[in-house]
Amino acid sequence: MSVHAPNKREIEREDRLLRDPVWQAERLALGEPLSKLGEASDDHAFFDVRVSLVARLKARQNRLGELRAEITPLQARRRELAAIRPKPEAELRVVQRELEDVEWQAEVQRDLHCAVLQDCHPSRRQNRRDVEPEKRAAPRGVALAYG
Questions:
Q1: Which of 3-12, 35-44, 57-66, 85-94 has the lowest mean pLDDT?
Q2: Does residue 58 fall inside a structural domain?
Q3: Is residue 134 part of a domain?
Q4: Phi, psi dihedrals of residue 80, rounded to the nearest 5°
Q5: What percent of the residues of the chain are helix, what percent strand, and what percent coil, each to the nearest 5?
Q6: pTM for the whole thing?
Q7: Domains held by the chain: number
Q8: CA dihedral of 141, 19, 99, 87, whole degrees rounded to 10
Q9: Is 35 part of a structural domain of the chain?
C-alpha cells in the first residue's frame, strides 16, 4: 500500500494555511456545529446542524465569488503594466503582491469549503443509527483538505 509523503511545497502551503487568521477563526467557529453533528440523536437536531453548516458553505461560496471578481481586474492590470516599455517594475511588484494575496485568500476559502464538506458529508456522519452504539466513532474536528 502506497502512502503519500508531502513534498516541501505542500508542507509549506499547509503551514501557511494553519497560520492564516481566516482559517483559524473559521476552524474555531466550526468546532461547535461539528461537535453537535456528532452528538445529534434525532433527525431534527441533525437537520438544524446541517442548516447551519450549509449557511457557512454559502458564505464561503459568496466570499469566493467576491475574490474571483477581484482577481480578474488585477490580472488585467498586470498585463497592461507588463506591456509597457520600459517596465514599471515597482508597480508590477505591487500588483503581483496584491494578486498573490487575493489568490491566497481564494485558496483558503476553497479549503474551508472542502473541509466542511468533508466533515459534514452523510457518509462521515458520526452518530448514524445503523451503527451499534459501541461501534460509533468519536466526534472529529475539521480535517485539513488540499484545494
A1: 35-44
A2: yes
A3: no
A4: -60, -45
A5: 75, 0, 25
A6: 0.70
A7: 1
A8: -160
A9: yes
